[in-house]
Structures are given as C-alpha cells and as structure tokens.
Task: inverse folding
C-alpha cells in the first residue's frame, strides 16, 4: 500500500520531511504541496491539489486533515510542533478549578479532530489529550522527527549571537498571541547595548511583517530556523515550539511572557509546567538581564532546561524512523 502526504504550508513540510525520507521507497506515494512559497523538495513531491482517493495519507495540520478527509482519504495527523494545546484549566487564587474553562480548539491536541485515524505525537501530554477525546483512535508517541535534523553551532565566539524571534499573533486565546508589542523597546535596548550580535526570526505566517520590522531596527533577518540553529548562541522567543527545538540542541533560551499570558490558566507545557526551559522575561524585566543570565547557563539552569524538555519530548532522537514504522504498519 502506498502512503501519500498533504501539506498547505512550508513549515508543515519541514516537520513531515524527515518522516517522508525515512519511509521505504516502495511505500512512498505522492507528497502533495498545495500551497505557495518555498518548501523542501522531496522525492515524490508535486505542487498541485491532490485528487480524491482512498489512499492512506499523512498530514500535519487540522486544515490539511479536514481537506484530506474531504477527498475520501483515511488520514493520519502528526503534531507539527511540541504538542502545545490550549484547553486549559483556570484556577482561582486558592487553586480551586473555576467554572467556564476553555474549550479546546481544533488546531490542537484534544480538539475537534475526530476524522483522524492515527495521531502521531512528540510527547505524552498531547497524546493523553487526544486519547481522552478519541479513545477508539490509534494514538502513538514517536518524538519529534525534526530534532534529528537541527544543526548545532560548534562553539561560541567572542561576541555572542542572540536570535530574537516571535510567534504569529494568533487570537485563539490570550496565550497564543505574540509578545512583540511589550518587547519592542527591549529589543531595541538589546541592540543598543552592542554587546551581542542580534539577529531576527519569526513564524513563517508573519515573516514578511517581521522581516520589515527587524530591518527597520537595523537587525538582520534570518528566514530559516535551520540557519538560526547554525548561528545563534541564545534563542529568545515567546510562544513557539522552536523554543524547545533550539533548547534540544543543548543551548540556552529566554522565554518572553506577554502581559496577556494568564498565570492562573494551566494549559500544560509552555503554559506553564515546561516554561522553565529558559530564563523568564517580561515587559517589566526587559531583556538585558535575562539574556545575560541565560548566556551564563549555570548547572541549575541546564537541569531545569533538561527537565522541561523531558516533559515535551518522550524521545529526542529517532523520531522519523519511529514514526515511519508506525505509518507503515497503519497503512498496511
């Protein structure tokens, strides 16, 4: 049985590519890239809309899952990030669960993704949410295939390279918003310090806007996360899975918390049990002190980073091969 894949955006392809390449050649069908813009070129990839077919298909987003099922395809979905979801539990000051908790969104684990036949997850947190929502579905924890492909910078130079990056301004809940408005002045202050080489990055959905913003402030825009991993000694980010991906390479991160992020709402992972992956920064603290603390990277900070990564990833190597084996078994 051949297995197809469908992706509308290039960053979904980035996460799926290691799995696609790990599949046996006789299992790979067609990889349909139905979007625009750059994406990796893979064996069997075509840039066009996929046809209707009853062929097992891999996707990496809720939108592609819905699209694939509309074509009559039995579909698997893999998380294209760390598995963050936003069906949080709100508690009052005494720790009591409040009424009216947040309904889970379809884009995240535990949301309305009932048409998926198979869920592939990087860790136990999102897997538990989908298993609880769909007890009859097959849910597998495979790790994050992308981690095996991330470059490592060999050594730090005399002038550390600090990458500042922002998520896109999603409006599902306050915690999906970007932190840019509260950190504009602090990024400028970091550059004015002239102690670091500051480079800019961001989510592909806001790359055009952020590239102009960084350029207007004299900061080099770096379009790919792979180049960030090749060059940066420290990664500063608000709410992207790239926080954990960069940290998995053994380097420190700074976690920017916008004022709208609610400490009394527990979504898990980044909000809040795995937020200890890096040094915390707020609009009140600024970035200069947190960046210096993070670059020092003392043993306690390294231990906190490792503990957070263990919460996010069940495995930090071999994810592509593990996922490919599950897909071959499922497709057959």
Result:
């Amino acid at each position: 049985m051949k297995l197809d894949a469908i992706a509308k955006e290039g960053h979904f392809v980035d996460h799926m590519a290691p799995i696609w390449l790990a599949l046996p050649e006789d299992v790979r069908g067609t990889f349909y890239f139905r979007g625009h813009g750059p994406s990796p070129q893979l064996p069997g990839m075509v840039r066009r809309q996929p046809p209707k077919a009853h062929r097992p298909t891999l996707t990496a987003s809720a939108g592609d899952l819905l699209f694939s099922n509309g074509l009559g395809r039995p579909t698997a979905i893999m998380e294209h990030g760390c598995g963050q979801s936003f069906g949080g539990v709100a508690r009052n000051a005494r720790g009591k669960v409040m009424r009216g908790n947040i309904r889970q969104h379809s884009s995240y684990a535990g949301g309305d993704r009932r048409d998926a036949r198979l869920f592939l997850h990087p860790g136990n947190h999102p897997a538990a949410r989908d298993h609880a929502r769909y007890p009859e579905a097959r849910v597998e924890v495979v790790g994050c295939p992308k981690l095996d492909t991330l470059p490592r910078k060999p050594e730090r130079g005399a002038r550390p390279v600090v990458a500042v990056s922002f998520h896109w301004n999603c409006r599902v809940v306050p915690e999906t918003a970007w932190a840019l408005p509260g950190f504009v002045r602090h990024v400028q202050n970091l550059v004015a310090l002239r102690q670091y080489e500051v480079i800019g990055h961001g989510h592909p959905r806001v790359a055009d806007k952020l590239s102009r913003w960084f350029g207007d402030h004299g900061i080099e825009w770096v379009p790919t996360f792979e180049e960030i991993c090749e060059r940066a000694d420290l990664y500063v980010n608000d709410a992207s899975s790239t926080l954990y991906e960069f940290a998995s390479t053994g380097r420190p991160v700074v976690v920017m918390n916008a004022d709208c992020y609610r400490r009394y709402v527990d979504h898990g992972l980044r909000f809040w049990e795995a937020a200890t992956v890096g040094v915390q920064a707020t609009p009140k603290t600024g970035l200069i002190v947190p960046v210096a603390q993070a670059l020092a990277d003392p043993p306690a900070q390294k231990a906190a980073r490792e503990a957070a990564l263990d919460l996010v990833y069940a495995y930090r190597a071999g994810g592509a091969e593990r996922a490919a084996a599950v897909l071959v078994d499922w497709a057959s």
Notes: The first helix runs from residue 10 to 22. The CA atoms of residues 114 and 159 lie 50 Å apart. The radius of gyration is 20 Å. Residues 161-312 form a domain with the Rossmann fold fold (CATH 3.40.50).
